[in-house]
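Second opinion, please. Please look over this fold, written as tokens:

===
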Amino acid sequence: MLSVALGTLRARWVTCVGSFVALSLGVALIAVMGLALASSLDAPDRAPERFAAAPVVVKGADTLRVPTSVGVRVQKLAHPGPVPAETVAKLRRLGAVVADRSFTVRARGGPKDLVGHPWSTAAFTPYRIDAGRPPRAADEVVVSGAWAKPGERVRTEHGTVHVVGTVARRDFENALFYTDARAAQLSPVSPQFVVDADPAAVREAVRGSDGVRVLTGEGRRYAEPAPDRDSEALTAMNAMFGTAGGVSAFVSVFVVASTFAFAVAQRRRELGLLRTAGATPGQIRRMVFAEALVVGVLASATGCLIGAYGAPRLADWVVDGGLAPSWFTIGEHTWPYHMAFWTGLLIALCGAAAASWRAGRTGPAQALREASVDNGTMPRGRRLSGLALLVAATVTLCLALVTDPGELLHRKTYVSRPMLLITAVALLAPVAVRPLTRLITWLPARLPGAGGMLVRENAAAGVRRTAAVAAPVLVTVALAGSLLGATATLNRARATETRQQMAAAFVITPADGAGFDTATVRKLREVPGVEVSATSSSAVHVLEDGTSLVTSDAHAADPGPLAATTRLPINAGRTSDLDDDSIIVNEEWQRHTVGEHVRVWLGDGTKRSLRIAAVMATGTGNNGVYVTPRNAPGATVDRIDVALIRGADAHDAATGLRAAVHTTGGHVLTKDQWLKTSYPKATNRTTRLGLLLVLGIALLYTGISLANTMVMATSDRIRDLAVLRLAGATTWQVLRLVGAEALTVVTVGAVLGLLVAGLNLVGMWSALALLSVWATIDIPWTALGAVVGACAVLSVISSVVPAAFALRRRAVELAGLPE
């Protein structure tokens, strides 16, 4: 049967090439995503930068460690604690001790990420003077880089300073060095110290100091800013590549299986003739499997080669787009190639399995059929599989809505959930193709001429062909509508929720992400006609089930101003009941009964027992918890809400507020301005590039597969087109008919895809309603229109061009071609 299989591959080379292209690109897609995911599992060892020349660094407690029955649970502290004074005294007896301080500096004409340090710490990088001299007075500084020169005066929020020297700029920071005394005034608390002593002696000195760490060698990098940026980047890349890989794998399996099944279905009469010639069902199945094996091996190997070429290009793109750190490259991994190759081969064989089983049952009488009307397009196995997946999608959605509606708002959920429904609708598509086609072509079929009627009958008669061509359109529209729609709907819901909670007329945000000092807050409160609520960001940790240490975002504010500027979604209790011994929690907390006491750890690791003063609705998950400033030690004010007192003039209030923050560079925004700049968050560049990665690659592949399937379908209808020419139709009439049929099939796929996307978005809307967030469904009509338009153009070109080339021959010759 292998020789017969090779012969049929030569005879049906268009179908062979179509299957080859679909499979090789699918395998390439899996290989690229596998290589990217494998390369994001480990970060390179990063050497210390700022403390490269420091002998020993002693760092205050920056992690919370809670013992449980299953081991110690560890979480990072939002506000690391200082090194205890008695420990510092012990260290000073061992050798020279230098206090390290870092604080934000806003300088006119300077970099936005400027950070201040005491000059004594410059030697630990090391920084060396390029021009000028070190600072000696409180108003003297040394700058890194060339943005200021010795002799210049620079205005900062801490006063005007005189630049007396410069050092070379380092990639990891833009530094501004003060004298040690002035730096201590600007940043009184020092979280870490550099000690020039024997490491063993230093460790002995800090013994008993809870949480204090001694850092030497490569470990000194944990004393530098953002020491976990590599692990955080890995986590973000794993999520991104994992999501993109899951979507890509689903699309690849979906399209390749559909293509191989369609390729076998095109040969019904040929297989019937083999049965007439005496071939047994087993021989037919072995022949189909042999063809799939040959194509699968060659295409999978080619796909791995394409993946090896494409993966480094993807890495360069994500680095250039800011989605990955500069060190990210594709490593030397072999398992992604094995996974891609064997997955591709398995898909090819599985795609041909069901079709070959049907092919083996093809009776000899079917070889005599001249009509191409599809019968039995919905075998029992396909119907049961489709119904089972549809029921599974419905049941899992209902269970999620009943048990945990918030789960439906998570990215992994709304990315993966559409796949189940897409597969179910695709399996059941033949049931809907004929009535849907007749509905779509109802009006064209009633127009003068036979074109509309022919389009309707051809599309409705070729159910397998229509369903196979509509499948890439279905998955393209469904994925684009579900993912983009879910993101837009969720962002709209968050904006609506935030708007409903805001009673403030103005929101004041700090410049460059820095906080507000006490003096600035005091000036704002002195502005007449306003109620000012200063909020600090912190964290609260709670142990649930005795084993899980859960971290919640905490907002620290005074209860009176908080109640005046916000309308928290309180389900029980009152905002005004918040005090230094209580907390406002949300319904996601395991213990959320008003009056109940909960044991928590604050942002600096302090352990406290707080009474629950009020309970908020869960909402979209952004509500967090609320505490008073006393329970957020170390937190700086990073947002100020301002409400107008009755009778106050908004313009005068805004003028006074801007004057109060003029020296610190704060931004005074109206409620609408703040909402517009803060929502929807999906419009930022990183998120757009992430969505482009997840959707773009998959949609590009489905677009190519659509064109590929259209070429396969058109090549199978050359005799039908020739018969139309013999019946009197002109070449242009035939080509217009082919184009109209292509548009009809794309419309069928688009309608099915919109149905899937709509059902998914309705599920998200229901979850939001159950979480007390009422928002409208946001369907991305512009993006969907572009996707459907691109599919329409691809399908028309991919069907009309091969038909035009074929029709250059005489109609009589084409009509006599063997199948």
The chain has a mean pLDDT of 83. The chain is about 50% helix and 15% strand. Residues 281-320 form the longest helix (40 residues). Residues 415 and 775 are 20 Å apart (CA to CA).
